[in-house]
Amino acid sequence: MNMQSQLQAAIAAAEKTLDDSSVASPVRGAANHDDDQSTQQPVADVVVPIVSKAVKIKNLDEKAVLVQVNRRMYSPNMHDKEESIKFGAGNVTKHLFEGKDNIVKETNAVFGALYKYVNDMTVPWATGVRLLNANLYMEFSTELRKHVDDANSAVDKLAANWDTAVQVDYNRMLRIAQAKGKPNLANINDYPDVQTLRSKYGVDVQYMPVPTADGFDPRLGMSAADQASVQDRVNDAEANGAKYVINQMLDPMSNAVEKLRVNIGDKGSFFRDSLIDNMVKVADRMGRINISDDPVVTERIKDLRALVGIYAKNKDVLRNSQSVRTKAATQIDNLVGQMAGLV
Q1: For the segment 139-160, what is each residue's pLDDT rounded down to a tens digit?
Q2: Which of 69, 149, 220, 329 would give a disulfide with 260, using CB separation of 3.0 to 4.6 Å?
Q3: CA angle, residues 51, 295, 47, in degrees to nearest 5
C-alpha cells in the first residue's frame, strides 16, 4: 500500500472512530436520530451549573493543604528621576539588561519556571496562597525543592559573573546615551553590588493546614460569626476550585475549535501537534490537581481525556483531512458547551 492509500485508509478509520465516539455528545448515551427528530437535550437541561450550588468537598482539610510560595527577584527596570522630571507627564523607566541573551534574564527565567510549576500544580485559595491536592504532596514538595535548588544555583552563577555582566550592560547604556545625547542615561550606580544583588533573590515556601470552622482553640472565644466566616472561605474554595479546573480546560479546547474550523489551505490553517498536545496535558494535569468531589466535574475531565486520546492517535489525519477536522471541531465544541455550563 502506497503512502496515499495509507493516508486515505487512516482518514477513513479516523472518521469512523470520530463518528462512533459519543464522548462529546450533549447527552451521554443518547441515541442518534435524523436531524429533524433529534432527541438531544440542550446542555443547560442536563448539566447542573456549579455556580448555582457550591460543590461540597467533604473534609477539605484532609484532602488538601495550603501552600504559600513567595519569590523575590532582581528587577532590571530602573526609575529615572531626572528624565521623569524633564518628561513632566509620567515616569520614565530605564531597562537594564535589555534583550533575551543575558544572564539576568536567564536567572529570572528560572524563578519564573518555579512560579509556573506552583500554579500548574495547585488551585487558588487566596492571594499568594494555593490549594494543593494532598495526594500530590510528596511529588510536589520533591519537585519544588528541585526548582528552589535550581533557582539558588542560578543566583550563584549570576553573582559569580556579575562584574562582567554589569560592565557589558553599562557599555551598552553608554552607547545609547551617546546616541541620544543624554549622558546621564548611563549610570554605574544603577547596578547593585553583589551582596545587594543576592538579597534581591529568594524563595520562601510554607505549607499550612486548611482551616476548619471548629478547628480553633475554644479559649480564643471564637464567635459564631467568625466560625461562619471561616466556613464561607472553605465553601468558596470548594466552588472556585471546581470552576478553576473547568476553566483551565476550556482555554485550549476553545483554541482548538477555532483552529480546526479554518479550512485547509486557508490562511491560518497550518496544523501543529501542540494543538492536541496542549489538551492532552491539561486534561492530565486537571485530573491530578482536582480536589472536587463533584461527579460532573470528574466526568468532564474523563470526557476530555477520552476525546483527546482519539485525536492524539490521529494527528496526521487532522493535518490532512478537512472532514476529520470538521468532525473533531464539532465534538470539541460540544464538550466546550457542556463545560461552559458549569461555570
Answers
A1: 999 999 999 999 999 999 999 9
A2: 329
A3: 50
